[in-house]
């Protein structure tokens, strides 16, 4: 769901007609999830998969203005889906407040059952990608593979950059 209200994440968004929005799902925790409005249906699916697996998605990163990321586990791609508002990095919270971070997620498929169910749902979805299946693993990453189409990625990247730089 696209959140409306007066919290800090919303105060840091461009105008109300901007393509850059704040997503809040019942199973999302962590940092504010800023994304392209066109990525919201994918985030809603991620939220649904988390609910079915009885886990929470703890967002550590979403929309980024550049590929310069302090402390990155994996070197960000030049055409990162984060920069077009189409990617998130996350940890998974399951059970009694237990965490599946990159060290745990790297052990997939030998991860706790609720975490495996969640990741399996992402992998099985034809429109989503889990970074654990990338050539260079990025187990905390989920996106919709927008960057497979360079023109479409460039269009959404430009829209996000205008939103941030010009307030559009």
Quick synopsis:
This protein has helices spanning 8-11, 40-53, 102-105, 113-124, 150-166, and strands at 20-23, 28-30, 33-36, 56-61, 87-94, 98-100, 129-130, 141-143. With 168 residues, it is an alpha+beta fold.
What's the total count of β strands? 8
Largest sheet: 6 strands, mixed
Q: What percentage of residues falls in helices of 4 or more residues?
A: 25-40%
Strand content: 15-25%
One letter per element, helices H and strands E, the order comes to HEEEHEEEHHEEH
Poorly predicted runs are 1-11
Q: Count of helical segments?
A: 5
Q: Rg from C-alpha positions?
A: 15 Å
What is the residue-mean pLDDT, rounded to a whole number? 87
Gross morphology? globular
Describe the structure.
It is a single chain. With 168 residues, the protein is α+β, with helices and mostly antiparallel strands. Strand 5 and strand 6 form a beta hairpin. Helix 2 packs antiparallel against helix 4. The radius of gyration is 15 Å and the shape is globular. The two termini are 21 Å apart. The N terminus is likely disordered. This is M15 family metallopeptidase.
Top keywords for this entry?
168 residues, alpha+beta, 30% helix, 20% strand
């Amino acid at each position: 769901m696209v959140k409306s209200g007066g919290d800090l994440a919303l105060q840091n968004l461009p105008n109300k007609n901007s393509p850059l929005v704040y997503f809040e799902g019942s199973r999302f925790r962590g940092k504010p999830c800023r994304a392209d409005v066109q990525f919201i249906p994918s985030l809603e699916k991620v939220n649904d998969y988390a609910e079915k697996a009885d886990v929470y998605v703890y967002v550590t990163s979403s929309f980024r203005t550049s590929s310069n990321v302090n402390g990155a586990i994996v070197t960000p791609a030049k055409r990162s889906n984060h920069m077009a508002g189409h990617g998130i990095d996350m940890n998974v919270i399951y059970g009694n407040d237990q965490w599946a971070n990159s060290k745990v997620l790297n052990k997939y498929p030998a991860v706790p059952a609720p975490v495996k169910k969640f990741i399996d749902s992402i992998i099985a979805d034809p429109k989503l990608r889990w970074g654990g299946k990338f050539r260079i693993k990025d187990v905390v990453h989920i996106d919709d593979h927008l960057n497979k189409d360079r023109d479409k990625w460039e269009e959404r990247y430009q829209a996000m950059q205008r939103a941030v730089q010009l307030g559009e």
